[in-house]
Description:
Bound molecules: zinc ion
Distance between the termini: 24 Å
Number of helices: 7
CATH architecture of the largest domain: 2-Layer Sandwich
Low-confidence stretches: 215-234
Number of domains: 2
Amino acid sequence: MIEGADNLFGTQLPTYTLVRGRRRTLSVEVRPHGDVIVRSPLRLSIPAIEVFLLERAEWIRERRREALAVRSELPRPSSPEEALHRGAIVNIRSMGHTYTSFPRWQRREAIRVFSDVITQVLPAIGVPGLRFRGLAVRSMRRRWGSCTNTGKITLNERLIIVPDDCIRAVIVHELCHLVHLNHSPAFRQLTRDVFPEIDEADAVLDKWSAILTESAPKTTSGAIGPAERRILPGAFDTW
Ligand SMILES: [Zn+2]
């Protein structure tokens, strides 16, 4: 993490996370939460990187303003006793839970709800739905779900905090990858046949994506976390 105040041009640049890798070009991305991620070749100097950022400072500010505005529209727990669950704020204590029992209960609920939706949706996918090889539920920082070419669906356990239609949209999306391992027009058509309101649900989910990175495991490098890396080989990206 490189603090904005410490950069070579005074305070004009935002705080950003620098991820170096084997690449030829620089890129900058503003995450839904407002974080700025810069990807750079291994040996490029900090001044060169910051000149690049300075040229894009206005664009970065604009994207961050948009990200933070979207985020303020979402329901927000106002005390530690409140939590998000299936698109609403719930009170942990009035549900009979403690701070430690609630996350465990919510994870079990996630597995139960996701499994129910999969059971409902699979028949609509048709015969290729038989390729379904099981569900894994784990915490991911950047994706709501993924599907491997061997038919395994992985869903983010944080998906249980979004409204039910958004949960269904992600599951329909992933299960349709059992038929088309791409985002072709045929894939899009299948998702709409199975769930006609999927575009509206996806638009709502986009807003919720702003909180995907919160309270999820962080990695020191700012790169993808171990849980995410485990599912990358042969997996198809979604969100
Ligand atoms: Zn996809």
